[in-house]
């Protein structure tokens, strides 16, 4: 399991479902945006920089 998946799984509802939805929406907007699997909380990477966290 990736660190990001583990992070989402430990969240209580409704936080888990809301943050998963936001995470999916952000990733769907631009093919150049990728999730960063190197951090324990979700981080969206664009142009090599962490630009959004959903912690």
Principal-axes shape call: globular
* Structural class category: alpha+beta
Residue windows where pLDDT falls under 50 for at least 5 positions: none
Count of alpha and pi helical runs: 2
Query: What is the chain-wise order of helices and strands?
Result: HHEEE
- State the major sheet: 3 strands, antiparallel
Task: Name the helicity range.
Answer: 40-55%
CA radius of gyration: 11 Å
Distance between the termini: 18 Å
| Binned strand content | 15-25%
Sheet with the most strands: spatial strand order = 1-2-3
The count of DSSP E runs of length 2 or more, i.e. the number of strands, is: 3
Instruction: Give average pLDDT, whole number.
Output: 80
Q: Quick recap of the structure?
A:
The chain has helices at 3-10, 15-29, and strands at residues 34-35, 43-46, 49-53.
Account of the 3D structure:
By secondary structure, the chain is α+β, with helices and mostly antiparallel strands. It contains 2 helices and 3 strands, in the order ααβββ. The chain has helices at about 5-10, 15-30; strands at about 35, 45, 50-55. Strands 1-2-3 form a 3-stranded antiparallel sheet, with helices on one face. Strand 1 and strand 2 form a beta hairpin. The longest helix is centred in the middle third of the chain and has 15 residues, at about 15-30. It starts with a helix and ends with a strand. The mean pLDDT is about 80.
């Amino acid at each position: 399991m990736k660190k990001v998946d583990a992070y989402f799984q430990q969240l209580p509802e409704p936080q888990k479902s809301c943050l998963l939805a936001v995470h999916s929406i952000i990733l769907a907007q631009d093919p150049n945006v990728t999730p960063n699997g190197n951090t324990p909380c979700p981080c969206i990477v664009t142009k090599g920089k962490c630009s959004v966290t959903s912690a």
